[in-house]
Each structure stands twice: as structure tokens, then as C-alpha cells.
């Protein structure tokens, strides 16, 4: 039987936290639920303490200085403290469905499989949150990939190098990974990234580890969409958006430099990084830098770089 550590970063999630924890405790495969409380300003810490008293499988940790360090650092601390052979993640405002580990029970019988990913559904908790989400991501009810895949096909798909559109993302809530695989490749979340640290982690994971799709046509977990979802607050191609995209692609670029990536993959990562780096410049400096970049590699014009904002 699988022995799983579920890691839940907790920040201002008092309204949702207990439902999240209970959804993980329903599975006998779950050896422990690790709550990493990140200096919330609401009642989250008190709720964490109460839940740990009521449920022996729930463990509570805070950062050594008891300060706020973000979701990436909180997940890293959870991985460090985990004792299960398998690691899963769950956001504190989300929850697992009863089929959460159905695919894993059979797929992990193949010893070469390091990780399994599935589909995540969406639950709208507020009307404002629904409108903000749909204005940016349409009314897609599943966060998933478009077809089954495993091994290097997952990495290629996430970078957009497959003949069919694979999909750019699968959600951490539906990922199960062997802890030994994370340790073998020293894989952690990038603490510099306050957003996109999940996408950054997943792409690196797909390169180093053998991942396989599980249930991708129906949800195994649900995301709660409400007024305070950070990802919906960012205006696309605004200075804030471009800066966060730059940090994300620069993280992948720095990671990829010493690796034997295929030239097309390495160039794609570099050009995305360079495009969003240019987007932060203004005026004459921006135009001269862009011209120099185009002369060096015209393919930069095929990236998602935009001439809007911060001219």
C-alpha cells in the first residue's frame, strides 16, 4: 500500500482549511498531513493547532523564525519534514475527491514510474472570483493535459514541442511523486518565485523524473476559486505580469544552463527569458535592446513578448 505525506502550505485559509485536511484524511494511504503555517494574519494558526489535537495523523510546522516565507518555502519545509515514501500537495483552500489515488494504486506497480499526475476540477466559491477567473482562463472546468503521456513526452509537451497541443500545465493538487526521486535530483521549489513556482517545479520535475499521466478526463481534486486567488489579480502583459514571467523563465534558464538539453529546448527557454527581460525596459533603451536581440536571434519575435505596457 502507498504511504503518502500530504503537504499543505497554510496562509490565511481559516475559512477553508478544515475541509481541505479532512479530504486528505479520508484515505488510508495517507500516512500524515503536514501543515506548514506561514504567519497568517487570520485564525489559521489556531485552527491548525486544534486540528492537530483532534487528528493524530496531522502535524504542524512553522518556519524557524515564524515569519512569512511564501508557498515555495513552505512546501520545501514540508518535503523536508515528510516521512512518507510518496509526496503529494494540497492548497489549503482546495480538497481531494474520493478517487484521488485510484490511478496511483496501479501505476506505481511499475518501478520506473517516479510520479503520477491527474486532472483537477474547479469550484467557484464566490461570484467575483468566478468572473475574474473566467475573464483570464475561460470557463474550462478541468486543469489537465490533452492526452495521456509519460516520460520525456511530458517534458516536451510542457515546453510546447509536441505535434499535438499537450497543455502547458497540470496542477500540484493532482501530482504524486516519490520522495526518493526528489532527493535524488535535489528538487525543490524556487523560493524567489512568489507565483509560478508550481509551473517551474513541474517542468524541472518532468525533465529529471519519469512521470506518467493518470486520470486526466475527470477531476481527482477541486480548486476553490474565490475573491483572493492571487493568480487572477495579475493583468496580462502589465509590468507586474512581465516581471513575474521574467523571474519564472529566468529560473528555468539558470537551471537549464549546465544541463544537456536539446538545442531547441534550450533556445526556447532562453528566448522566453530574454523577451520578458526586454519587456521591463523603457524608451530608447528598450528599442535599442530589442533591435540588438532581434539581430542576434530573430526567433525572439515568435515568443509571447508584447509591445504593450512599459514602452
TrEMBL record:
The keyword Transferase applies. InterPro entries: Glyco_trans_2-like (IPR001173), Nucleotide-diphossugar_trans (IPR029044). Residues 5-101 form the Glycosyltransferase 2-like domain. CDD domains: Glyco_tranf_GTA_type. This is Glycosyltransferase family 2 protein. Keywords: Glycosyltransferase, Transferase. It comes from Chryseobacterium rhizosphaerae.
Amino acid at each position: 500500500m502507498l504511504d503518502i505525506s500530504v503537504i499543505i502550505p497554510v496562509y490565511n485559509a481559516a475559512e477553508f482549511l478544515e475541509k481541505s485536511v479532512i479530504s486528505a484524511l479520508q484515505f488510508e494511504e495517507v500516512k500524515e498531513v503536514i501543515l506548514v503555517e506561514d504567519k497568517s494574519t487570520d485564525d489559521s494558526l489556531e485552527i491548525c493547532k486544534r486540528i492537530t489535537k483532534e487528528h493524530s495523523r496531522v502535524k504542524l510546522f512553522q518556519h524557524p523564525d515564524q515569519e512569512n516565507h511564501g508557498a515555495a518555502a513552505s512546501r520545501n519545509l514540508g518535503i523536508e519534514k515528510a516521512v512518507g515514501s510518496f509526496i503529494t500537495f494540497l492548497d489549503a483552500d482546495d480538497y481531494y475527491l474520493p478517487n484521488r489515488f485510484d490511478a496511483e494504486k496501479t501505476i506505481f506497480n511499475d518501478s520506473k514510474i517516479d510520479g503520477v499526475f491527474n486532472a483537477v476540477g474547479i469550484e467557484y466559491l464566490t461570484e467575483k472570483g468566478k468572473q475574474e477567473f473566467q475573464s483570464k482562463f475561460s470557463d474550462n472546468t478541468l486543469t489537465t493535459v490533452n492526452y495521456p503521456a509519460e516520460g520525456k513526452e511530458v517534458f516536451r509537451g510542457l515546453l510546447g514541442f509536441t505535434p499535438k497541443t499537450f497543455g502547458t500545465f497540470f496542477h500540484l493538487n493532482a501530482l504524486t511523486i516519490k520522495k526518493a526521486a526528489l532527493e535524488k535530483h535535489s528538487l525543490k521549489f524556487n523560493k524567489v518565485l512568489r507565483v509560478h513556482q508550481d509551473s517551474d517545479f513541474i517542468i524541472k520535475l518532468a525533465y529529471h523524473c519519469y512521470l506518467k499521466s493518470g486520470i486526466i478526463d475527470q477531476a481527482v481534486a477541486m480548486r476553490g476559486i474565490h475573491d483572493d486567488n492571487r493568480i487572477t489579480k495579475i493583468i496580462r502583459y502589465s509590468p507586474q505580469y512581465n516581471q513575474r514571467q521574467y523571474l519564472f523563465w529566468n529560473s528555468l534558464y539558470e537551471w537549464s544552463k549546465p544541463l544537456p538539453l536539446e538545442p531547441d529546448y534550450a533556445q526556447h527557454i532562453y528566448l522566453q527569458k530574454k523577451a520578458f527581460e526586454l519587456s521591463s525596459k523603457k524608451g530608447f533603451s528598450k528599442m535599442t535592446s530589442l533591435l540588438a536581440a532581434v539581430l542576434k536571434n530573430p526567433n525572439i519575435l515568435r515568443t509571447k513578448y508584447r509591445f504593450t505596457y512599459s514602452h
